[in-house]
Design goal:
The complex is a heterodimer.
Chain A (H helix, E strand, L loop, with lengths): L4 H32 L6 H19 L2 H29 L5 H27 L13 E4 L2 E4 H23 L1 H11 L1 H6 L4 H23 L9 H16 L4 H21 L2 H18 L11
Antiparallel strand pairs in A: 1-2
Helix pairs in contact in A: 1-5, 1-8, 1-9, 1-10, 2-3, 2-4, 2-8, 2-9, 3-4, 3-8, 5-6, 9-10, 9-11, 10-11
Chain B lengths: L1 H24 L2 H27 L6 H18 L5 H23 L4 H21 L1 H4 L5 E2 L5 E3 L3 E3 L3 H24 L1 H11 L1 H7 L3 H27 L1 E2 L6 H14 L5 H21 L4 H14 L9 H5 L1
Antiparallel strand pairs in B: 1-4, 2-3
Classes of the chains: A mainly alpha, B mainly alpha.
Chain lengths: ~300, ~325
Amino acid sequence: MGLPLEQILIQTINGLVNGMILALVASGLTLIFGIMDVVNFAHGELVMLGAFTGATTLAVTGNFWLALVVATLVIALFGAVLQVTTLRALLGSGSRTPQEVALTTILATFGISLVLQKYALWQWGPSARKLQEPITGQFTLFYLQYPWYRIATALLSAAIIGALYLFLKYGKYGIWIRAAIQDRVMAQAMGIPVPLLHTAVFAIGAGMAAASGVLFGPLAGVTQTIGADFTLRAFIVVVVGGMGNLGGSILASIFISLLEAYASLIVSPAQAVIFSFVALILTLLFRPTGLFVPTPK
Amino acid sequence: MRRSATSYWIGFSVILALLAVAPLVLPEFWRRFVTEILIWGLLAMSSDILIGYTGMISFGHSVFFGLGMYGAAAALLWAKPANLWLALLFGLAAAAAVAVFVAYFATRLRDIYFSITTLVFSQIFYVIIFTWTEVTGGENGLTFSRPALAIPGLFSVPFTTETLHWFVLAVVTISFLTIRRVTQSPFGMVLQAIRENEPRARAIGYAVERYKIVAVMLSGLFAGLAGILYAIQNKFAAPDCVFVLVSGEVVIFNVMGGIGTLVGPIAGAAFFLLLREGLSRYFTEYYLIPVGIIFTAMVIFMPQGLLGFARRRLNQ
C-alpha cells in the first residue's frame, strides 16, 4: 500500500508526545498500586479534574504555567483528602485478606470515579474546553506546521518523571517509599510511617495526573469524559509494563502510544484502540508479569 | 433446618405472588418499572455467579448482555414474522459464542487482572459494534417490532404490558431456581472453594481453569438472556447497552444488594433503580453523584450489602 515515510515519521513524533503524557498518568497509577495494592479506577478522573482546574485558573489569571502549578497542587491536596477519607479505612483494618482489600478498593475508587465525573459535568458543563497553549510557535515538519508546544509537552513530562525518579532514588522520603513498596511490614517495623506514606504517594500520583491533564488540555478539548479514556489507557499501560513497575510503565506508555499512532495510519483512530487492547491481551497471556521487566525467578 | 427451608419457600412464594399480581394493581409507569427491575435483576444475578461465588469481579458483563440483545435483534429483523423463540435462540447463541471467547482468555488471569481483561473485552466489543455501522446500525442501534407470545400450533397473542411482565417473571424465576440449584450443587461448591482458596482447590485436584471457564459461560448465558428480555421489552438494541457503564451498574447492583446471595443482586437492582428514579427528580442527570456517594459509603461501611445480614435465612 506504500505509506509515505514522512507520515510514519510524523506519527512517530505524535506517538512519542502522547506516550510521554500517558507515562505521566501511568507512573502515578503504578506507584499507587506498588505501595498499597490499590487499583485506582478514579485515576483518569483526576486527570480530568486537573485539566478543568487548570482551565479555570487559566481563565482567571491568564498564565498557563501558573495554572499548571495550581492544578497540580490543588488536585494533589484533593487526592490526599480522598485517600484519607475513603481508602485509609479500607487499607487500615488488618482483618482483611489482600484479595478482599483489592476488591473493596476497586469498588470504592469506582464509586468515586462516578461521583467525580458527574460532578465535573455539573460544575463545568458538557461542552468541551480548549486551553490556550502558552507556546504558539511552529516549525516545518515535511509538509505540515508542527507546533513547538507538543515538543515542549513531551520534554516537560519527561522532566517531571525524571524528578520523580531522582526523588525516589536519592530523596530521604523517596527511599522510605521504595522501602514500603518492597516490604510494608518491615518498613513499618523500622519506624517508617507507612499510612502517611500511602497518603503522600496518592497525593503525588494525583498531582502528576493533574499535571498531565493540564498539559493535555491544549492538544484536544477537555470534557468530563476524557477521564474514563485515560483510566482505560493507563490500565493497559500499567499492565503491559508490569504492575507496580515504574520504568516498565514509562516504556509501555511509549510503546502503546506508538502502536496506536501507527495503527491510525491504517484504520480509523476509533478503531486504533483495538490494537492496544490486543497488545494487552497478548501480554497477559504470554507474559503476565509485564513486557519490560526482567523475567521473575 | 426443615423449618428454615419451609420459611424460605413460604417467603419465596409470597414475593413471587406479589410480583405476579403487581401489573394488575400498579399504574402503567410502575408496571414497566417492575418488569425492568426483574430484567436488570437477572443480569445482576448472572454476574453474582462470578463475583459472589467464584470471587472474580467481572467489569465486562455488558458484553454478554449486549450480545444477547443484538442476537435477538438479528433474529427479529431476519425472520418474518418475528418469532420469540428464534430471538431467544439467536440471543443465547450470540452470548454463548462471546462468552466462550472471553472465558478462554480471561480465566487464565486472577483478581484485578481478570477485572481489567473483562473491562477491556467489553470496550473491544463496544468499539466494534459502535463502528461497524452497516451491520449493527452504529450509534443509532437497531429498532424492530416486538414478537408475539406464541407457542407454534397452540396459541399466539401479542404482548401486552401484563403478559410481558409475566413472561419476564417466569423467565427470571426459572433462571433464579436454576442458578440457585447450580450454586448448591457440587459444581457450585467447587466454585466457592476456588473463591476461598484457589491454590488449595488446585492442590486438592480440581481443574480450576475448567471450572472457571464453565462459570464464566454460565454467567454469560444468563446475562445474554437478560439482554434478550431487554430487547423484547424496549424494541431496540443500542450500543449504549454494551458500554462499560452498564457493566459498572451491574457491579453496583451486586454490592448494594449483597454479593453471593443471588436474591441480593435483584434487591440491589431494585434499590438502585428506585434511588435513580427518586433522585433524578431532584438531581436530574446528576443523580449519579448521590448514588455514587451512597455506593462508596456502602463499600466502606456495609460490605455485605443490604441482604448480607439476611443471607443465611434467604439462601440456605
